[in-house]
Design a protein that fits this description.
By secondary structure, the chain is α/β, with parallel strands linked by helices. It has eleven helices and ten strands.
Length: 255
């Protein structure tokens, strides 16, 4: 890791911990996840600004249109690939839509990339991420990999052994942080964290849950040794999003 990567990564990883807010659902899921308030990126970005997050994951279009007014408010993680929810999961593929150079021009502190481990298009995504990873070395840019087992060969996307495999793939491909599915228990998630070794593991917040249940899950994830979370709907779909963020901050850093 070069000096630029270390510097940028230090803005996202605080005392070894990570708390990201994500809003890449507009492409991934379509408008179905939004209501009249949170469909406006400015509403969500205000939560990122005030909620103590160590980074915000966005696609390039939202970053292009909105980050000028939020520059310096939080580190930007620019998602470099994406897909719609209209494509069958059996042959799922997330295509490149932005470059590391664009991430630099937009002021990003890291890039995000989705890899569908086990998909029939796995080899193509690995090759594309390899090129992205090499470009990141040139620009001093850390990488966050969305490491998701998915596709016709994956029967259970939250199978602990397969999630651990995905986390290990993120390490093997050179990711700095791996975002993975939670496997459902402290005992089953510990091997996932162990598999990734020096690649930090953060858990996906997933779909909206009852607040108490979500915070309880968050505590278990940290107990398993994860570095933190990348959350979205459980914060900006909540009527008390900043309160949820404050609770997550206490779970992650203990204060």
């Amino acid at each position: 890791m070069n000096i630029g990567q270390k510097t940028r990564l230090s803005r996202i990883v605080k005392d070894g911990k990570v708390l990201l807010l994500a809003m890449d659902q507009g492409m991934e899921h379509g408008p179905v996840d939004f209501n009249e308030k949170n469909i406006d990126p400015e509403f969500v970005l205000e939560i990122a600004k005030k909620g103590g997050f160590t980074g915000m994951a966005l696609g390039k279009g939202v970053a292009y249109h909105y980050m000028d007014q939020f520059a310096g408010s939080f580190p930007l993680i620019l998602k470099l690939n994406g897909r719609t929810n209209l494509v069958p999961k059996d042959s799922i593929y997330s295509s490149p839509v932005a470059s590391v150079r664009e991430a630099v021009r937009l002021g990003a502190d890291a890039v995000g990339y989705t890899l569908y481990v086990g998909s029939p298009t796995e080899a193509q995504m690995f090759k594309e991420f390899g090129a992205i990873r090499a470009e990141c070395e040139d620009y001093g840019m850390p990488t966050v990999v969305w490491a998701y087992p998915r596709g016709m060969h994956v029967k259970n996307e939250k199978d602990p052994a397969i999630v651990a495999y995905a986390a290990r793939v993120a390490l093997e491909l050179g990711a700095d942080i791996a975002k993975v599915n939670y496997t459902g228990s402290v005992e089953s998630f510990k091997p996932v964290v162990q598999a990734a070794q020096r690649c930090k593991v953060i858990a996906s917040g997933g779909s909206k849950q009852e607040e108490d249940k979500f915070i309880s899950m968050a505590k278990d994830i940290i107990s398993a040794g994860a570095a933190g979370f990348a959350v979205g709907r459980n914060v900006w779909q909540s009527e008390k999003g900043l309160d949820v963020a404050k609770q997550l901050h206490k779970v992650v850093w203990g204060k």
